[in-house]
Each structure stands twice: as structure tokens, then as C-alpha cells.
Design a protein that fits this description.
40% of the residues lie in helices and 16% in strands. It has 11 helices and 12 strands. The strands form 3 sheets. It has a 6-stranded parallel sheet, sandwiched between helices. A 4-stranded antiparallel sheet has the order 1-2-4-3. A two-stranded antiparallel sheet has the order 5-6. Strand 10, helix 9 and strand 11 (272-277) form a beta-alpha-beta unit. Helix 1 (25-32) crosses helix 3 (63-81), helix 2 runs parallel beside helix 4 (88-98) and helix 5 packs parallel to helix 6.
């Protein structure tokens, strides 16, 4: 099965429309989305017009745009044929990978072959939605130490936690350890009200949010009670050896040089470590060097270490976030 392009008879090669036929009308309904919102999203971002005629779609526009839109529609229909669902984020990801928004080649749609690069958790499958994310996920599986560096919203931490959950559920590692520097409190958490968990939870909330996306609440609570999933401030890592674990240090730009060295040397047998951060959001006191930037320079050529870089084109939150980041990057370039 699949969709096929039908060429109307006696139509010139430079015709401004492409006709696509979809064998399964149920899947076509899902492809179009409620009130055709999926088609509207493709139209708006790819510069084409799409009309629905029975079990066919007519794509109108310049040839390059039509070819890319066709690649997106083919990939999304194949996804539905494999039994998976479509959300607006999946549409955005398909356009990125087709070259329709940020990519270069239609061949990038190969990522959307059923099951390829898919991360399976207990609640939902997770897929990289840009080329940088795809490379990052591959490095998370292939390297013992991986860095993810770039702005907020690019999936650095989210994908790392998803891969960690997958490895935990499949028995590759025995536990997950997630950490962040508690910079705002200067690591002196005793001044905050409540017990230790209540003191650190506000800083760790993004990590809890990611875990809640991947694991049922009861299972997550049980794994945390058994210490198979730990969430703790960076200061609590001192003196530990982290063996047979998937370890993530988030917001690493706010670790000092000594803290970063301490954390990196906690890596034990059978473990994997991921360091994520955004060099543009350093909250350390003035004059204090970032451990992330220091590690980047020192470890760049060390075997077994990968560096993965993201930019505004990899933002998978609201499209406006990407435009905001681009505006700040342009302003910084002008100022500097």
C-alpha cells in the first residue's frame, strides 16, 4: 500500500499542481487532521495550497515546494500506515526533515520510515524531529559521554531522559540519575523552608516533567522509592561512583569548573553520561567560569566523547520560540 502520484493526462511538465491519491480514506482523514488543520499547517509553512478531492489531495505551488510537500505527505501517511498517530509536533518534525522548513534534502524524510530512530517508553514513543536531534540520539546510544549544547526548547534534556528511560526499561542500565546545579540558592539549600526534597524540588521540576511524560505515575513513584531513579542537586554527587547508570547533568552551564570535573569523574563501570546546557544562559556569579565551556575545550578530542550542537532551527516548542532565539542571536551578533 502507500500513496502514489497521479499525473493528469496531457498536462505540461511545468504544471503548478501535483495530484496525490490515498488508498485508505480513514488514514486520509487522520492525515488531514480535524478541520484540515494538518494540511493548513503544511500550507502555511511550505508555501503551497492543498485541496482535498475525495481520496485525493491536489498540491499547488512552485515545483520545489510541491516536491517537498509531497515528501512530507508521503512520510506522514506511511507513519499512519504503521499504526502510529499524528500530532501537530509530528507535522512540524516531518517538514523539518523534508527540507521544507529548515533542511536541505527530501531524502531526509528517510527518518520517518516506521520505527526508525524511535525511542519507546511506557507512555509514548519519542522521535527526533530534526537532523541535529537524530544525530544526538544516535550519539546517546553509541557514546559513554555525550554533550548536548544549545538553546532552550531544542530537546536536549527531553531526549536524554527518554533514552535513559528506554535503557532502564530494557535492562541496559540499572538506574537513572538526573542532576542540576541549584545555582540560585548557591547550593546552600538550608535557608529554604521544608525538608531536603521540598528544598530542591523547584530546581528539579523540569526533570520530573520529562519523567512524567514517559512513565506512569505509579511506576515512576515505585522506581524513585527503590532509588532506581534519582533526582538530586549537583552538590550531592560528590564522593559517589555512578555505576550501571544513565546519568544526566542538566543546565551544565551553571556548574563551575571544579563541579564539572567532579561530576565527570563520577562515571562508573557500565554507565553512560549526558551533559546538557545553554552557553547563553550562564547564571554563575560574575567572574566565575562555566564548567561547560571549560569541558568543551578540554574534552573535544577525547575518544568516546561526542559533542552535539543545536540552534534555533532545532527548537521544537512553539515556532515563536525559534524566532525569539533568532532575534536574540542577531542582536548579540550586532552588539559583538
Amino acid at each position: 500500500m502507500g500513496i502514489s502520484a497521479l499525473t493528469p493526462p496531457k498536462r505540461p511538465e511545468d504544471a503548478m499542481e501535483t495530484l496525490l491519491e490515498f488508498p485508505d480514506n480513514r488514514l486520509l482523514i487522520d492525515l488531514c487532521g480535524q478541520y484540515d488543520r494538518h494540511l493548513a499547517q503544511i500550507e502555511q509553512q511550505m508555501g503551497v495550497n492543498i485541496l482535498r478531492r475525495g481520496n485525493r489531495l491536489v498540491v499547488m505551488g512552485e515545483k520545489a515546494a510541491r516536491d517537498q510537500a509531497e515528501a512530507v505527505l508521503r512520510g506522514l501517511y506511511a507513519r499512519l500506515e504503521s499504526g502510529r498517530t499524528l500530532e501537530l509536533g509530528d507535522i512540524e518534525g516531518a517538514m523539518r526533515m523534508s527540507g521544507g522548513v529548515f533542511g536541505d534534502t527530501v531524502e531526509q524524510m528517510e527518518m520517518f520510515q516506521p520505527g526508525q530512530y524511535e525511542i519507546r517508553t511506557r507512555k509514548k514513543p519519542v522521535e527526533p524531529r530534526t537532523e541535529a536531534q537524530k544525530t544526538y540520539v544516535a550519539n546517546l546510544f553509541d557514546n559513554e559521554l555525550a554533550f548536548g549544547i544549545g538553546p532552550a526548547g531544542t530537546g536536549k534534556t527531553y531526549l536524554a531522559v527518554a533514552v535513559g528511560v528506554t535503557m532502564l526499561l530494557s535492562g541496559v542500565v540499572e538506574k537513572i540519575i538526573l542532576s542540576r546545579p541549584a545555582v540560585e540558592a548557591g547550593e546552600r539549600l538550608g535557608f529554604l523552608p521544608g525538608d531536603m526534597k521540598e528544598k530542591v524540588d523547584p530546581y528539579m521540576q523540569p526533570l520530573y516533567d520529562a519523567l512524567n511524560d514517559f512513565l506512569p505515575q505509579k511506576q515512576l513513584a515505585k522506581l524513585m522509592e527503590e532509588k532506581r531513579i534519582e533526582i538530586a542537586p549537583l552538590a550531592f554527587m560528590r564522593g559517589r561512583t555512578l555505576s550501571n547508570a544513565f546519568v544526566v547533568l542538566d543546565e551544565a552551564q551553571n556548574a563551575t569548573i571544579m563541579q564539572m570535573k567532579m561530576f565527570l569523574t563520577r562515571l562508573g563501570e557500565g554507565s553512560r553520561m549526558v551533559i546538557t546546557g545553554d552557553r547563553t544562559q550562564i547564571d554563575l556569579p560574575r567572574g566565575t567560569a562555566s564548567g561547560l565551556q571549560d569541558a568543551e575545550k578540554i574534552l573535544k578530542n577525547v575518544r568516546g566523547v561526542s559533542f552535539n550542537y543545536f540552534n534555533s532551527k532545532d527548537v521544537v516548542r512553539h515556532p515563536l520560540v525559534a524566532r525569539i532565539i533568532e532575534a536574540y542571536e542577531a542582536a548579540d551578533g550586532t552588539a559583538g
